[in-house]
Design goal:
The structure holds 2 protein chains of 2 kinds. Chain A folds into 3 domains: 42-146 and 208-261 and 265-299, Alpha-Beta Complex (Aldehyde Oxidoreductase, domain 3); 175-204 and 300-478 and 652-824, Aldehyde Oxidoreductase, domain 4, CATH 3.30.365.10; 493-645, Aldehyde oxidase/xanthine dehydrogenase, molybdopterin binding domain (Aldehyde Oxidoreductase, domain 4), CATH 3.30.365.10. Chain A has 22 helices and 30 strands. In chain A, helix 7 crosses helix 8, helix 11 packs parallel to helix 21 (775-787) and helix 16 packs parallel to helix 17 (562-589). The longest helix of chain A has 28 residues, at 562-589. In chain B, helix 8 (226-232) runs antiparallel to helix 9 (239-246) and helix 9 packs antiparallel against helix 10 (263-281). Chain B starts with 6 loop residues before the first strand and ends in a 7-residue tail after the last helix. A 5-stranded antiparallel beta sheet of chain B has the order 4-5-10-6-7. In chain B, strands 11-12-13-14 form a 4-stranded antiparallel beta sheet, sandwiched between helices. Chain B folds into 3 domains: 7-52, 2-Layer Sandwich (Uridine Diphospho-n-acetylenolpyruvylglucosamine Reductase, domain 2); 57-172, Uridine Diphospho-n-acetylenolpyruvylglucosamine Reductase, domain 3; 179-281, Enolase-like, domain 1, CATH 3.30.390. Chain B has helices at residues 14-23, 36-41, 78-83, 85-99, 104-109, 112-117, 125-131, 226-232, 239-246, 263-281; strands spanning 7-9, 27-30, 49-52, 62-64, 70-73, 135-140, 143-148, 153-155, 158-159, 166-172, 179-187, 194-205, 207-216, 223-224. Chain B contains 10 helices and 14 strands. The chains are: A alpha+beta, B alpha+beta. The A-B interface holds A 129-131, 133-134, 679-680, 682, 719-720, 724, 732-733, 737-738, 740, 742-743, 745-746, 801-803, 806 and B 1-2, 186, 188-193, 195, 258-262, 265, 268-269, 272. The structure holds flavin-adenine dinucleotide. Residues 28-36, 38, 74, 101-102, 106, 109-111, 113-115, 117-118, 120, 122-124, 161, 166-167, 193 of chain B line the site of flavin-adenine dinucleotide.
Chain lengths: 830, 288
């Protein structure tokens, strides 16, 4: 049951079926030998180097921008200012938001105003990176500082200083999600637990590689070539195309290896647009490689969410009926992909639980901070964290065992497919069993005894916490209509092209842009099973290139879906290719298709190897010898098979905010044991287990790698990583000196286990699982809560530095308000 | 340029280095470069001439004297401190602290001299050298002088060195009979910056006879906490008396607040780490 490290036998010694095996990764050879092609390795002939001029102020009027000193500097090709960029554009960037949010005018560079520290006001192109950087210091910008708003809740106040005057408000979106009958539940429950405030902090999962791009606006052809490490390049194309006046077929986006993305490489399209205009102006390619501080300050952060006035109706037996809450999502200074965060969470309205009555009053606000965009666990993580905090607070307040309370409220194995209050369908799983496995792997029995022995006052305390979470995958983009009913989006899909090349080589290419998810390996496994050959003989095109890869509007690598959409497309395309090979084989071997089989690159009559034709022969007949073929084959067979996998979605009901919003629900149950130093609050993880159930695993070791990566990022965020702003809107952690990204020394050994509950809705029974649902944040907070005494404060923030844990430990001494009240019906006292 | 263009000279001797430093107002010594190159990259200091002293043999020796004291050349690296038998023989704690500075790339290049001359309050070695009562050997083209370590650190990124002067070596006396040292820090995470540190040297002869307790990151430079030292002297070497002594640390400190810790937390933690450092020095617990 438990995944243990198995010896890495090479692919050659293994046999089919390949899916389900930990075959060695195709990508590893080049990556471990330093032969990957990352963004800074790529360039174009005659390129200049770009450096952005960025605002030191969080909010200011731009009085003037004078590039003359920069233009006079040696090696400078061009300077593009915000106003000039605007003049070169047709329309501002497209907005997803309706109403006030839709009125926001965002251009490639700031015009008239800067709205966060690091907002770009101009960009310089020069013959070297250093010359561009030097010249950027010579661009004279005159600012008139304005009042600043950095609090996501205060930003919604009518009196708050407004970032975008054309919108007239900082509220980018507001809506109420109301399912079941929460008022009835609150009246009828035996207990109502009230929590004043929970806060999910701002951080960003750190990629090793920052953003970057080389962009060339070719004057002769009008083609705009973009080599970048965007993880959803065609989304960027769709956003910037109308702004730049460039049709999609005049773009050529491409990418190679990407050094980590986690969602934060979806939305740097303003920079791409600015580079395109800079290139157009200078008449040469513009190359930009983001600096680390630039990345931390201006690339993107994860959504910061504040939950207020939480009310939880609970029955005497521990059944939790629902939750009522006001949520404020602070999305920073511009809407990049937002306000989609205001709906994405509703893929997991009740979390892992059977609660039926939920009302969430949701507000998205703009603040003078770095814009947010998806970050591993996007939007669901924040909501799931709140639910897990609720479970533990309810357990703590009403005296339930957190394990038993979870098991009582979990969706049970026999409930699947389970429809949530808003019409989402949980496909499969076994949460109670996953939890038992995790408790076992973390050796919780041992740690409970240790906790008992140590008690309090002996210097160290032990705490045990659970994080139960869902990684909903394969979005129905129709949920965007819940934000804005006029949006023409719905469904999802991915494209793949399977072909035999001129000498019979098998090739697969996709619309995806992997960043470590091993698409080359798993695609080859799946295709190899269909063609009955070794995955080593299947080539999967490295990277993405708009010019020759197949894609749809949803293409990219994001949001836990490749195992379903990507591999679904590979399966469909490869099956088509197999059929064509069999058809040509049937002609060549003069045998009916049904009597043929494929084996290691040949097509043969079953049981008679003497009657066979290799793939090179099939390719020859179609590509270079087609006069031999009968006319009906000539016109139907091309050995280039495209397939688009489309999940079975309907358009959600925007008015009632219901519908099936995601196809699959992988679950992650994490158990964390901490040892807290009573004197300092320093928290050390002494045992950690992660049990993932993502249905059928195409390659178990790759799944385990994703589990480890997601766990490490979550642990880092829970204990070390936070982006805070001071009152002036200055980022307090602009470098690794202040922002400690968790390293190998901080992350404990992770005991990983699994269950495989196949999804009934996907072509291969697999579920997306890469994001991981933020389980470590939930589990670490729960473990810290478990360390605290009855009268101590509750863990109300997702980030817990040593200092904060120290404060929590001493909160009772200082009579700090706990922010939790329980109201019980008289009859419920028993 | 990432690094503004700057002249680079590698002198053949300390005398030549001193001459170069005296004759160029904008010259600065370059040791391991682990801080200086970052400072130049961030453009917070401007230097015209880098005088690379890192490979001068005269600055790279470790001498252990018959009396048990050691003299460590300014350009001895952390890694060399860690590996040196001479250092380990009587000053194992220096090797240990050096071995915990960041990662091996930094330990291969960073020097004891650079660690002191930068006077960065987060650096690991200064509080230890104060606890161990070191003496700094300083030379200029005009002569040489010895500076007691407690007078060496003057403020943030500021030392007692005059323009044109080099720190050539650090002399660390033998631990007095019956004395041991301890060192404790509270870090943000496993391999990150310290929030507070403490180093101590305590001599025990039935009772505590002598104590030097140093706190770092609670003030611009590492400071000795006289109140705690006085409370320790004459006390029994027990956990209780150390706790009582540490409780003298309090309102007298006004630590800075930054993203790693508030002033109040630092003040509280100063007590804890000072106690842990002293406990280690009297053999009653682990440091670090
Ligand atoms: C990422 C990173 C993290 C770090 N974290 C820590 C840490 O946690 N703790 C820690 O202790 N250190 C840390 N360091 C700093 C490191 O220890 C440096 O090596 C040290 O501060 C300077 O030593 P250096 O030999 O590299 O000196 P350099 O960088 O070459 O010089 C530093 C300064 O001292 C002057 N100088 C150097 N030698 C002499 C001399 N003999 N006489 C006069 N002036 C001199 C130079 O002119 C310069 O002003 C870190 C460094 C890096 C890159």
């Amino acid at each position: 049951m438990t995944a243990t490290a198995t010896s890495t036998a090479g692919t050659r010694e293994r046999t089919a079926p390949w899916s389900g095996q930990s075959v060695a990764r195709k990508e590893d050879g080049r990556l471990v030998q330093g032969q990957g092609s990352f963004i800074d390795d790529l360039g174009m002939h005659g390129q200049g180097y770009a450096w952005f001029v960025r605002s030191p102020h969080a909010h200011a009027r731009i009085v003037s921008v004078d590039p003359s000193r920069a233009l006079a500097a040696e090696g400078v090709y061009a300077v593009l200012t915000g106003e000039e960029a605007k003049q070169m554009c047709e329309v501002p960037f497209f907005q997803i938001a309706p109403g006030a949010g839709a009125r926001i005018e965002e251009w490639p560079l700031a015009v008239d105003k800067v709205r966060y520290q690091g907002d770009a006001v101009a960009v310089v192109l020069a013959d070297t990176r250093d010359a561009a950087r030097d010249a950027a210091e010579l661009v004279d910008v005159d600012y008139e500082p304005l009042a600043v708003v950095v609090d996501g809740v205060a930003a919604a106040d009518p009196g708050a200083v407004v970032l975008h005057e054309e919108a007239g408000t900082n509220v980018a979106w507001h809506g109420t999600y109301d399912y079941g009958d929460i008022d009835w539940a609150l009246e009828s429950a035996d207990h109502v637990v009230r929590i004043d405030r929970l806060h999910f902090h701002r951080f960003s999962s750190t990629p090793l590689e920052c953003n970057g791009a080389t962009v060339n606006w070719d004057r002769g052809s009008g083609m705009v070539e973009v080599k970048s490490n965007l993880q959803m390049p065609m989304f960027a194309a769709m956003v910037i195309g109308p702004t730049l006046g460039v049709p999609i077929n005049k773009f050529s986006f491409s990418s190679r290896d990407i050094g980590g993305a986690f969602g934060n490489k979806i939305a740097f399209y303003p920079q791409i647009a600015a580079l395109a205009l800079l290139s157009r102006k200078a008449g040469r390619p513009a190359k930009w490689t983001e600096y680390r501080t630039e990345h931390m300050m201006t690339s993107t952060h994860g959504n910061e969410r504040t939950f207020l006035d939480i009310e939880v109706p609970v029955m005497g037996d521990g059944s939790i009926l629902g939750v009522k809450v006001r949520a404020y999502d602070d999305v920073g200074a511009y809407l990049h992909y937002e306000p989609l965060g205001a709906v994405i969470w509703s893929q997991v309205v009740p979390g892992c639980y059977k609660m039926k009555h939920v009302r969430v009053d949701f507000t998205t606000t703009l603040t003078n901070k770095c814009p947010v965009s998806p970050n591993r666990g996007y939007s669901r993580m924040q909501h799931l964290w709140m639910l897990e905090r609720i479970i533990d607070i309810v357990a703590h307040e009403l005296g339930f065992d957190p394990v038993e309370l979870r098991k009582r409220n979990y969706v049970q194995p026999e409930d699947y497919p389970y429809e949530t209050p808003n019409g989402c369908v949980y496909d499969s799983g076994d949460l109670p069993r996953s939890l038992d496995i995790a408790l076992g792997l973390a050796q919780v029995d041992f740690w409970r005894r240790r906790k008992q022995e140590l008690g309090t006052g002996k210097g160290k305390r032990v705490g045990i916490g659970i994080g139960s979470t869902l990684d909903s995958g394969t979005n129905n983009f129709g949920q965007a209509r819940i934000i804005n009913p006029d949006l023409p989006f719905s469904g999802n899909g991915e494209a793949a092209l399977a072909k035999l090349d001129l000498y019979g080589e098998v090739n697969i290419n996709l619309g995806t842009t992997p960043q470590g998810q091993s698409h080359e390996t798993t695609s080859a496994q799946v295709a190899a099973d269909i063609l009955n050959m070794s995955p080593e003989d299947v080539t999967v095109t490295v990277g993405f290139d708009q010019a020759h890869n197949s894609f749809v509007g949803f293409s990219g690598t994001y949001a836990s879906q490749f195992a379903v959409t990507g591999l679904g497309a590979v399966m469909g395309a490869t099956e088509k290719l197999r059929d064509q090979i069999l058809e040509v084989g049937s002609f060549a071997l003069e045998a009916p298709k049904e009597e043929l089989e494929l084996s290691s690159g040949t097509c043969m009559v079953r049981g008679d190897p003497s009657r066979s034709i290799p793939f090179i022969g099939i390719a020859n007949l179609v590509y270079t010898n087609n006069a031999v073929l009968p006319p009906e084959l000539r016109s139907t067979v091309d050995l280039n098979c495209r397939y688009v996998y489309v999940p079975p979605f309907a358009v959600p009901d925007a008015e009632h905010k219901t519908g099936n919003l995601t196809l699959t629900y992988a679950s992650q149950i994490h158990v964390c044991v901490v040892e807290v130093d009573e004197e300092t609050g320093a928290t050390e993880i002494v045992s950690y287990a992660a049990v993932d159930d993502c249905g059928n695993r195409v390659n178990p070791r790759i799944v385990e790698g994703q589990v480890h990566g997601a766990a490490a990022l979550g642990i880092g965020a829970a204990l070390y990583e936070t982006f805070d702003y001071d009152e002036e809107g200055q980022l307090e952690q602009p470098s690794f000196y202040e922002y400690h990204a968790g390293t190998a020394l901080d992350i404990p050994d992770i005991q990983s286990g699994y269950l495989e509950s196949p999804s009934p809705f996907t072509p291969n029974g697999a579920k997306g699982m890469g994001e991981g649902g933020g389980a470590p944040l939930h589990a670490v907070c729960a473990a810290i809560q478990d360390v605290l005494g009855k009268d101590d404060a509750v863990v109300s923030d997702s980030h817990n530095s040593s200092e904060r844990v120290y404060e929590l430990l001493h909160s009772a001494d200082h009579h700090r308000a706990r922010g939790v009240t329980v109201v019980s019906r008289p009859s419920a006292d028993a | 340029m990432l690094l503004k263009s700057v002249e680079y000279v590698r002198p053949g001797s300390v005398d030549e280095a001193l001459h170069l430093l005296r004759s160029n107002a904008g010259a600065a010594p370059l040791a391991g470069g682990q801080s200086l190159s970052n400072i130049l990259k961030h453009r917070v200091a401007s230097v015209d001439v880098l005088v690379d002293i890192s490979s001068l043999d005269e600055l790279r020796e470790i001498q252990r004297r018959p009396d048990g004291s050691i003299e460590v050349g300014a350009c001895v690296t952390y890694d060399e401190l860690d590996r040196s038998l001479g250092v380990r023989a009587g000053h194992e704690i220096i090797a240990r602290v050096a071995s915990h500075i960041e990662d091996s790339q930094i330990r291969n290049r960073g020097t004891i001299g650079g660690n002191c001359c930068l006077s960065d309050p987060t650096n690991n070695l200064p509080p230890l050298l104060i606890a161990l009562d070191a003496t700094m050997h300083v030379r200029s083209a005009g002569g040489s002088r010895r500076v007691p370590v407690e007078e060496f650190f003057k403020g943030y990124f500021l030392t007692a060195l005059e323009p044109g002067e080099l720190l050539t070596s650090v002399e660390i006396p033998a631990l007095p009979a019956g004395a041991r040292a301890g060192y404790a820090s509270l870090n943000v995470a496993a391999d990150s910056k310290a929030i507070v540190r403490s180093a101590a040297r305590v001599k025990v002869n039935e009772v505590i006879e002598e104590a030097r307790v140093v706190l770092a990151r609670v003030a611009p430079v590492p400071i000795r906490h006289r109140g705690m030292e006085e409370a320790l002297v004459g006390a029994a070497p027990t956990a209780e008396s150390v706790r009582a002594a540490a409780d003298t640390i309090g309102e007298d400190l006004e630590p800075v607040a930054d993203s790693h810790g508030s002033s109040e937390y630092r003040r509280q933690m100063a007590r804890v780490v000072a106690r842990r450092a002293v406990l280690e020095a009297i053999g009653q617990g682990g440091g670090m």
